[in-house]
Amino acid sequence: MRKARGRSKQFIATTAITTAMMCLTAFDVQAADVSFSGVSDGDLESALRGGSLLIEQTLQEDNPPASAEILAAAQADYKRLLAVLYDNGYFGGAINIRVDGSEAASIPPVQPPRTINKVEISVQPGPKFRFGRAQIGPLAPETELPEGFAVGETARLGVLKNTVSASVDGWRAQGHAKAALAAQELVADHPDKTIRADLVLAPGPRLRFGPLLIEGESDVRPQRIIDIAGLPEGAVFSPEELRLATERLRRTGAFNAASLSEADVIGPDDTLPITAQITDAPKRRLGFGGEVSTQEGLSVSAYWLHRNLLGGAERLRFDAKVSGIGGQSGGTDYLLATRFERPATFNEDTDFYALAKIEQLDEVSYFSRQFDLESGIKRIASPERTYTLGLGFRRGLTRDLFGENRYTLLTMPLSAQFDYRDDSLNARNGYYLKADVMPFLAISGADNGVRSYVDARGYKTFGTARPVTFALRGQFGSVYGPSLEESPADYLFYSGGGGTVRGQSYQSLGVDIGGETIGGRSFAGLSAEVRMSVTDSIGIVAFADAGYIGEEEFYNGDGTWHSGAGLGLRYNTAIGPIRLDVAVPTSGPDTGDNVQVYIGIGQSF
After folding, report:
1. What is the pLDDT of residues 355-378, one digit of tens each?
2. What are the C-alpha distances in Å from 564 to residues 170, 487, 558, 583, 585?
3. Model-level pTM?
4. Dihedral (CA of 240, 241, 246, 251) sign
5. Statement: residue 543 has pLDDT above 80
6. CA 171 to CA 158: how far, in whole Å?
7. 3-class SS letters over 332-399
């Protein structure tokens, strides 16, 4: 017994020493020399280098890998490089990776060399194979196969995968949710350097949507989850309907996660049950924001949001904003608003909303205080297209050049929005268009009329290493019906400032009447930016803006233009670029030497 305990202690000590030596070996850090040879095709060599974990490690000059990490990367590179060869049509290649002269595959990973000085990667790709036969079937109607899956084309492994995926998707689009690859025969003819590919699909039965089953703890009522998803139970299965149902659940904001998955087993009468995996988002959220400019001063805002007010994913939001603090654009403005939204009210893509708002605007040319009540519907036709229709009541008090006026209006706000930008805060490509039209019926203090406003933006990016983005914006506004004197002062248009013409003072351009300025019934704004990336985080912007205000209802050129231009700096963050713009006036009635500075989050448009 004593001898056994002695051997046990000796074993423990030996193990401890061995473990310590392995740890010391694993942390012996140095920079190894990695070479690559054997490939004459430049494109293939570039692909192989890009797929090599060893070469990726050598780029980490500030943090060179330990010898154990180098060996692990070398042994992993066999499969990685082989996958690159297969994806480029080389099925007879040979790969050698030598670590200080020894084949990496023969070195035990638990006993890596203490030091590694040189790693040699040698790839002999062999001949490139092409498709000698390329058959797959049966195919669903209108299935489009990749162009590379054809006799004579390079036999890429990626093409085979994409072909199977496209073929299965073709059947799924026809309602065959369980379509799959049933058999495959891939034969390499080395003398002819060809691959014979015969792929057989099993479409399976045409299925219909079964019931939507809900998993996960949620405070949203199950029936409301079903209503919001809008999955058409009993209709022919469609991957697009599945995607839309998932999107509807996510856009409510009530869920941190919402995913729909198909059952593994087909249900009765060729139905396919769908399971919704739901995780609630925090019910309440508090947010703050701010923006500052030399002319308009400081603006601060805050909001409080409840995401599931009544158990049906209803949203209630309160907003408060104070702007014009310390600015030179009149007095201080205030806003207090609340908005209620109920998703899937009339159908899965139509939401109901109701709002109440109190706002005070103390501007250089006018003062107004309004109270608004409004309710309506919002139709989400697609993730990019949204339409709204509402009915509203407005009671307002204004003071301007024409004196004090109290008015009461019934309004019918209409809007259409098309947002095809790749990023709403930092767009590089795409376009955005929003049109607002609001007929109003005057009960007192004004005449009947229509106020309209259009905002159109377009983006195009060139280059990849240091991309340059061209951004254009056009704004157009009109008040039709009442005369200038009878129009509500807060419905009229001004130009100048961060939202229209940078470099010009805030709302500095309007209609001149006896040396006094009042808003116009027509407005046009044009902006252009060239956005250049200096690094991944920093960009510079050159921009020019122009604005027009006229007394007429629609633009006819009788009004006045002014413009501004400048340079900007952008610093990219996770929540969007931080914006710093410096601008000067370039034309207009008052082109003094003022320099305007604008700071905010997100691009200017």
Report:
1. 999 999 998 888 999 999 999 999
2. 54, 29, 20, 7, 4
3. 0.77
4. positive
5. yes
6. 20
7. CEEEEEEEEEEEEEEECCEEEEEEEEEEEEECCCCEEEEEEEEEEEEEECCCCEEEEEEEEEEEEEEE
